[in-house]
């Protein structure tokens, strides 16, 4: 059995007027997976264009990113993005993982450094055979995309460029930060430009509720001639508890009008619909909804806006 590469996300984004996508989180290790696929079917029927699957967010115990992406692609005929992280992984482990993805046809990846466990604030220091930054991971994926593999020390000649087999058709995405926390906006733009130069062809932002900040970010990238399709990431909220968690843990500023609307399902949906239209007007070619248990709300929004 030969599995074909997935449809490139960039082709899908550029081929449509506007895309709706969803980021799903694998179930906690030990929990059944059936509920996740019930949500996938619901979202597909509503008209979602593709789905991304997180990996190890906050150091969580949630395996299954790769097989879930594969099953979404094969069973539901939906393009899938697998989050791919490099924190604490050797370059050899990264290459092996990428080859596994390619064999399964999971060629849409979001290249991330990865998160330390929630509550751990010490700075990450990569080892000598690891990547410190996401742009270095992107460089490695892009090299593999061109068919260049790592040398095996003691077996491969050091004066040759090891290049063997067919190149893998990876479509590489990168995280974007139009509202950076610990660095300036110009530094955030500089870092994203570096990711584009290294081979990223699409981006997805951190959680954001500000079309204005998003547009400023795009304008700065355009000035650097490094503008690629970047989808704003919007977390769908359903309770004050979620608002408090985002503000405390991630310092995400949730608009007061959205918070006030949460007690009324219709008003909350209308707020999100209006927000999506604002992002579209700001230059977005799509939006990605971040959800945990809000699949029904997202399905309703997408079905109404398609």
Give me some keywords for this one.
single chain, 306 residues, alpha/beta, TIM Barrel, 8-stranded parallel β-barrel, 8 strands, 42% helix, globular
Question: Can you walk through the features of this model?
Answer:
The chain is 42% helix and 14% strand. With 306 residues, it is an alpha/beta fold. It has a single domain (9-305), classed as TIM Barrel (Alpha-Beta Barrel). It has an 8-stranded parallel beta barrel, surrounded by 5 helices. Strand 6 (202-207), helix 7 and strand 7 form a beta-alpha-beta unit. Helix 2 (34-46) packs parallel to helix 11 (295-305) and helix 4 (91-103) packs across helix 5 (134-145). The model has no long low-confidence stretch (mean pLDDT 91).
């Amino acid at each position: 059995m030969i599995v074909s590469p997935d449809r490139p996300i960039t082709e899908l984004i550029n081929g449509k007027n506007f895309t709706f996508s969803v980021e799903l989180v694998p179930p906690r290790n030990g929990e059944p997976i059936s509920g996740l696929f019930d949500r996938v079917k619901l979202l597909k029927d509503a008209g979602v264009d593709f789905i991304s699957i997180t990996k190890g967010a906050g150091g969580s115990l949630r395996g299954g990113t790769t097989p879930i992406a594969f099953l979404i692609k094969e069973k539901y005929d939906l393009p899938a993005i697998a989050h791919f992280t490099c924190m604490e992984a050797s370059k050899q482990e990264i290459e092996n993982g990428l080859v596994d993805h390619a064999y399964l046809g999971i060629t849409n990846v979001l290249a991330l450094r990865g998160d330390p466990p929630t509550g751990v604030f010490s700075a990450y220091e990569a080892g000598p055979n690891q990547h410190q930054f996401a742009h270095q991971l992107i460089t490695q994926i892009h090299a593999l995309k061109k068919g260049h593999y790592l040398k095996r020390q003691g077996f491969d000649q050091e004066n040759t460029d090891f290049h063997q087999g067919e190149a893998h058709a990876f479509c590489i995405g990168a995280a974007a930060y139009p509202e950076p926390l610990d660095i300036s906006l110009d530094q955030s733009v500089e870092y994203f430009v570096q990711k584009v130069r290294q081979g990223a062809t699409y981006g997805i932002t951190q959680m954001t509720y500000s079309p204005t900040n998003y547009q400023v970010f795009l304008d700065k990238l355009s000035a650097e001639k490094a503008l690629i399709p970047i989808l704003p990431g919007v977390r769908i909220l359903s309770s004050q508890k979620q608002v408090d968690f985002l503000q405390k843990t991630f310092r995400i500023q949730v608009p007061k009008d959205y918070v006030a609307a949460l007690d009324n399902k219709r008003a909350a949906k209308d707020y999100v619909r209006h927000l999506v239209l604002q992002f579209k007007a700001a230059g977005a070619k799509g939006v990605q909804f971040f959800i945990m248990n809000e699949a029904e709300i997202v399905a309703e929004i997408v079905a109404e806006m398609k």
